[in-house]
């Protein structure tokens, strides 16, 4: 198990800027990756989610540029990309990792804002493709930097929708609003209870240390399998089910109406998708109730039930994450579930602080027995959302 990462990421972004542009940045901005405690695939159904920000983050060193092209250097990609207004104006003209940056410029223009031209250097310690929302961290960091550089007064509550628009409209990924909200609106020692319809938030105290607990995050390293297509297919199934049921979104189906709703749907696959979303929304509400009451260990069974629902009804888990959940539970975790969009990524396990290491070892042993690539684990503490660092 590795501890919290050291954070030379700020220095790496600054050094990258100086190397790429031969000058000092005007400032440094950071935005975190997230872990979703519970509430999976509920965001685009107008439902409820409960993420918290990781201490792992993407840092942008930036300065205004008097020219007409945005220039971005990325440590992870090992390259520099530049694009002008015309490329930013047309989704698809900038591809790869830089599309997330061009997408933010595009979304700001689309919102009628006068985006400042800038030079940026990006470094990150959010693992890529691990379901910890490295994309949202990149969008949120760039968005926060550009808004500050341009002295553009956009309320924090309105920012996640701009970052989501970059991803939906420019990158072409039909994600919901959870990840961008988490990266922008989360606070240390709290989980963010977000109503994805009204965008109202409640900062729910989630002080694991005070409760003698730890949240173990296990990166399954499972190769992502058809992620984009499967995600879009789940979203389409949910939206067509809502239309068939005559409701704006599956959020409008309560658990007391579930049996009646299921009886009205012919397709057994669609019925399972609906059951996941409806029961998952209820699990989020129950988790929030327990956290409000300070009964942290009692959320364990809800986490595990969420995993079972993702495995059996939403069908988005893979053997590696199922194995991690089973091994964590067998080693004494209060509860465990996959977090994020699915088909790989990370598992979280709620454990007594002293059990974090043994549970991580038990998962590693189960992986070795099944011949899976060794997982990596760390304990996560809720950190701050996007902000200016200097
Ligand atoms: C991905 C998406 F980006 C989110 O919007 C959300 O739907 C999540 O999968 C599943 O809960 O992270």
Give a nutshell description of this structure.
The chain is α+β, with helices and mostly antiparallel strands and 390 residues long. It folds into two domains: 9-205, Ribosomal Protein S5, domain 2 (2-Layer Sandwich); 213-380, GHMP kinase, C-terminal domain (Alpha-Beta Plaits).
Give me the oligomer status.
Answer: single chain
Total strand segments: 13
For the sheet with most strands, the description reads: 6 strands, mixed
The CATH architecture designation of the largest domain is: 2-Layer Sandwich
Shape: globular
CATH class of the largest domain: Alpha Beta
**Ligand roster:** 2-deoxy-2-fluoro-alpha-D-galactopyranose
- Our measurement of the CA-to-CA distance between the termini, rounded to an integer number of angstroms, reads 32 Å
Site (Transition state stabilizer): 34
GO molecular function: ATP binding; galactokinase activity; magnesium ion binding
Protein name: Galactokinase
Pathway: Carbohydrate metabolism; galactose metabolism
Structure characterization notes:
The chain is an alpha+beta fold and 390 residues long. The protein folds into two domains: 9-205, Ribosomal Protein S5, domain 2, CATH 3.30.230.10; 213-380, GHMP kinase, C-terminal domain (Alpha-Beta Plaits, 2-Layer Sandwich), CATH 3.30.70. It contains twelve helices and 13 strands. The strands form three sheets. A six-stranded mixed β-sheet has the order 5-4-6-3-1-13. Strands 10-11-9-12 form a four-stranded antiparallel β-sheet. Strands 2-7-8 form a three-stranded antiparallel β-sheet, with helices on both faces. A hairpin with a 6-residue loop joins strand 10 and strand 11 (346-352). Helix 4 (134-149) packs across helix 5 (159-171), helix 5 (159-171) packs across helix 6 (178-185) and helix 7 packs across helix 9. Mean pLDDT is 96; it is low at 2-7. The site of 2-deoxy-2-fluoro-alpha-D-galactopyranose (GAF) has 11 residues, from helix 6. Pathway: Carbohydrate metabolism; galactose metabolism. This is Galactokinase.
């Amino acid at each position: 198990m590795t501890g919290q990462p050291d954070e030379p990421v700020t220095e790496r972004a600054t050094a990258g800027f100086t190397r790429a542009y031969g000058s000092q940045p005007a400032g440094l901005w950071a935005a975190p990756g997230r872990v979703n405690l519970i509430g999976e695939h509920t965001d685009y159904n107008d439902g409820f989610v409960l993420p918290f920000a990781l201490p792992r983050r993407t840092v942008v060193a930036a300065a205004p540029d008097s020219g007409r092209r945005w220039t971005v250097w990325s440590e992870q990609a090992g390259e520099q990309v530049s694009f002008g207004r015309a490329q930013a104006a047309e989704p698809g003209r900038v591809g790869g990792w830089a599309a997330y940056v061009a997408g933010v410029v595009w979304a700001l223009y689309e919102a009628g804002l006068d985006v400042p031209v800038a030079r940026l250097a990006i470094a990150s310690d959010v693992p890529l493709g691990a379901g910890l929302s490295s994309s949202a961290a990149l969008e949120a960091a760039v968005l926060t930097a550009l808004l500050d550089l341009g002295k553009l007064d956009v309320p924090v509550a309105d920012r996640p929708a701009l970052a989501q628009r970059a991803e939906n409209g420019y990158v072409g990924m039909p994600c919901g609003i959870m990840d961008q909200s988490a990266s922008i609106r989360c606070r240390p020692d709290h989980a963010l209870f977000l109503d994805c319809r009204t965008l109202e938030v409640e900062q729910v105290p989630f002080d694991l240390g005070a409760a003698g607990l730890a949240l173990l995050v296990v990166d399954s390293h499972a190769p992502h399998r058809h992620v984009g297509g499967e995600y879009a297919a789940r979203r389409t199934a949910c939206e067509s089910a809502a239309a068939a049921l005559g409701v704006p979104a599956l959020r409008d189906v309560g658990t007391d109406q579930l049996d009646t709703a299921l009886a009205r749907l012919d397709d057994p696959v669609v019925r399972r998708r609906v059951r996941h979303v409806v029961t998952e929304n209820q699990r989020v509400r129950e988790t929030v109730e327990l956290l409000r009451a300070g009964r942290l260990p009692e959320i364990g069974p809800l986490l595990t039930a969420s995993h079972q629902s993702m495995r059996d009804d939403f069908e988005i888990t893979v053997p590696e994450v199922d194995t991690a959940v089973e091994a964590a539970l067998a080693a004494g975790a209060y509860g465990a579930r996959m977090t994020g969009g699915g088909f790989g990524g990370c598992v979280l396990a709620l454990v007594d602080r002293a059990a974090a290491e043994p549970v991580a070892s038990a998962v590693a042993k189960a992986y070795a027995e099944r011949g899976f690539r060794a997982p990596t684990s760390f304990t996560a503490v809720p950190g701050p959302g996007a902000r200016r660092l200097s």
